[in-house]
């Protein structure tokens, strides 16, 4: 049984929905799963300027905050973030910037790794955000586990071979059942391949 960490940031819930679905999929594959959100770093004034942002932050108060140890523990990990100008959020990046010690001792290497995101627009940077996280995975020495086109349900979800993504249109919690099915599939696939890596 693989140990899978799903570590994500979400301001208004879309990436949170994907994270939950990835975690569910990994559990369906028999994995032990840690679902963790990274710490919010934005000032209250910014959060309060967007009621959906404040509402989401209040709603996830009971989701544990990610620590570096969560990735050290994992046989495979999934990282999720909203798209920010075509790249990952500062909040997720702040978490990544705490991982130097683990990286230096090789403790992030040889794990399965996958990524998911949400952007407002279909072509607003979903793919470039995930590919940016693939750069990070390369530095870790991880084994990147993209969904590719390995199941027909991925076409129904928009056909993103890099990772699950939801074009939110600026709404909160906009992920469709088809996108959530793709995210669950991605979690299952990560768990299955990570289990093979540690076998
Ligand atoms: C500073 C900032 C930059 C953003 N950059 C992009 C972008 O490059 N492309 C895009 O389509 N949406 C962009 N968005 C919108 C978010 O990516 C989008 O609302 C996403 O669905 C939010 O995910 P969440 O609900 O998990 O927080 C941006 C939002 C903010 C606040």
Topology:
Elements: E1 3-8, H1 14-28, E2 32-37, H2 44-48, H3 51-59, H4 68-73, E3 76-82, H5 90-96, H6 100-104, E4 112-119, H7 126-140, E5 143-144, H8 153-156, E6 165-167, H9 177-198
Parallel strand pairs: 1-2, 1-3, 3-4, 4-5, 4-6
Helix pairs in contact: 1-9
The site of flavin mononucleotide has 20 residues, from α1 and β4.
Bound compounds, each kind once, are: flavin mononucleotide
Q: What is the C-alpha radius of gyration, as a whole number of Å? A: 15 Å
As a percent range, the share of helical residues equals 40-55%
Question: Mean pLDDT across all residues, rounded?
Answer: 98
- The CATH architecture would be 3-Layer(aba) Sandwich
Largest β sheet strand count, sense and barrel closure: 6 strands, parallel
The number of domains is 1
Ends apart, CA distance between termini: 9 Å
Q: What do we call the CATH topology? A: Rossmann fold
What key phrases describe this protein's structure?
single chain, 199 residues, alpha/beta, Rossmann fold, six-stranded parallel beta sheet, 9 helices, binds flavin mononucleotide
What does this protein structure show overall?
- This protein has helices at 14-28, 44-48, 51-59, 68-73, 90-96, 100-104, 126-140, 153-156, 177-198; strands spanning 3-8, 32-37, 76-82, 112-119, 143-144, 165-167.
- By secondary structure, it is of the alpha/beta class.
- The chain has a single domain (3-198), classed as Flavodoxin domain (Rossmann fold).
- Strands 1, 2, 3, 4, 5 and 6 form a six-stranded parallel β-sheet that branches.
- Helix 1 packs across helix 9.
- The protein is globular and about 50 Å long.
- The mean pLDDT is 98.
- Flavin mononucleotide binds at residues 10-15, 82-86, 118-121, 124-125, 168, 170, 172.
- Flavin mononucleotide (FMN) binds next to helix 1 and strand 4.
């Amino acid at each position: 049984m693989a140990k899978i960490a799903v570590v994500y940031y979400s301001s208004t819930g879309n990436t949170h929905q994907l994270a939950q679905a990835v975690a569910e999929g990994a559990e369906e594959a028999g994995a032990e799963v840690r679902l963790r959100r990274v710490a919010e770093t934005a000032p209250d004034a910014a959060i309060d300027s967007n009621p959906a942002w404040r509402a989401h932050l209040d709603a996830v108060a009971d989701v544990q905050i990610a620590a570096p140890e969560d990735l050290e523990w994992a046989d495979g990990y999934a990282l999720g973030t909203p798209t920010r100008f075509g790249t990952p959020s500062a909040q997720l990046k702040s978490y990544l910037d705490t991982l130097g010690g683990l990286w230096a001792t090789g403790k992030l290497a040889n794990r399965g790794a996958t990524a998911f995101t949400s952007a407002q627009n279909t072509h607003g940077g979903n793919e470039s955000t995930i590919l940016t996280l693939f750069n990070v995975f390369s530095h870790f020495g991880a084994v990147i586990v993209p969904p590719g086109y390995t199941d027909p349900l991925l076409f129904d979800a928009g056909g993103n071979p890099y990772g699950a993504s939801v074009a939110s249109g600026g709404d909160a919690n906009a992920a469709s059942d088809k996108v959530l099915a793709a995210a669950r599939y991605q979690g299952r696939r990560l768990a299955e391949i990570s289990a093979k890596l540690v076998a």
